[in-house]
Specification:
- The chain is elongated, with a radius of gyration of 40 Å.
- It is built from ten helices and six strands, in the order αβααββααβααβαβαα.
- The protein is an alpha+beta fold and 447 residues long.
Length: 447
Amino acid sequence: MKTRSLILLLFILKMSGAISLYAQNKVWTINDCIQYALEKNIQVQKAQVSNGISEINLTYAKSAWYPSLSGSARENLAWSNQQNTTSGATVFKGTDGTNLSVNSGMTVYNGNRIRNAVKKSETDYESDKYNTEVIKENVSLNVLNAYLQVLYSDEQIKNSNDQITSTLEQLNLAGERLKLGQIANSDYLQVKSQLAKEKQTLAVAQSQLAINTITLMQLMEIPEVNDFQIEHPNLDSLINQKRIPDPKDIYQISLGFKPEVKIAELNKKSSQISVDLAKASLFPNISMNAGLATSYSSSKIGSTFGNQLTNNGSPTIGFTASIPIYLNRQVRTNVAIARKNTNNAELDELNIKNQLRKSIEQACQDVISSQIEFEASTEAYKAVKESFDVAAEKYFQGLMNSVDFLIQKTNFISAESTFLQSKYKLIFSYKVLDFYTGQPLSFSNNK
């Protein structure tokens, strides 16, 4: 038994280790990250629970169509002085009695209150489902942004490493020239100072990568691990697609599927139904009820329990009409408030659509501006790189001093950083525009 338990324990530990190793070695794509975040996000889960409650409320509202049914049973024990008919003696004697009844009732007419209550519950249920979609969209956008920030930081580190490698070569060359007396010590120290700055820039980039990675993992609800890796897709096809987005066309597309618009429309519909529900109290409420009652008493000598229940059966059927006459303006006040709530819902719908239109207009302008910035930064980067390559050649040939060369290198590093920022800003602006046209948040070209 001990041997079998030990083997089982070792197997479990081995499988746990294998699972942990798999989790660490997994390379996460953007689709993996978004899907995992949607499964683990607490707000998404709470929205799904709320949706389940709305579904229960809908089922409950529909049940009002069916008749109710209830039953009751009562057992009575009583004692009294009773005279024996034969001997004439008085005896303190107990009797028992049983009462059984079954009752049923249903609404015949109540001003369409049940029908409207069901319609309102159906509308609220649909609204809750779209609310879940709104939260999912927000989570997906946040994960996409965090994912791009990790890619951006990683590329910054690569550029910093390349710059340090280049500066190390320049420092070695400056050291040799210093020994030969070809340059002054100040020139050597300039290059050495540049190397220190670039190492500091690298440290900042590495720190930012760690922060951005933790941000992404937290959005995904993943505990921090040391070997979290994401896929580095080829983004060339996403760069500078030269789009000319039309805000009006994109807005019309968004109106057809954006969940926040659907929620506003459904909330308006729900408020309109609430007006009809309030009006229902102005109409009579007619209900039907039916019942069956019977009883048994031990005081009836010579009659069995079964016979008494059969003979004492008393069926009933009836109708009840409740007619409102004067309710201190309670109903009319409720109707007036419901109408005002409808006005608010209409304004909310208009506001949501206006906000969507403004967001789309901003997204379109961001695309246009980002494309212009990217083109400008690309041209500037190419020009500065050519100038830097010439300066590097002159420096290695001893035709340029360290001060002038480092000025060229600083300009190159600045242009490279601006180019990198404009690249990822452009990619994100494209993805936001895709988001408003209903396209998936992936790194495929959804042009």
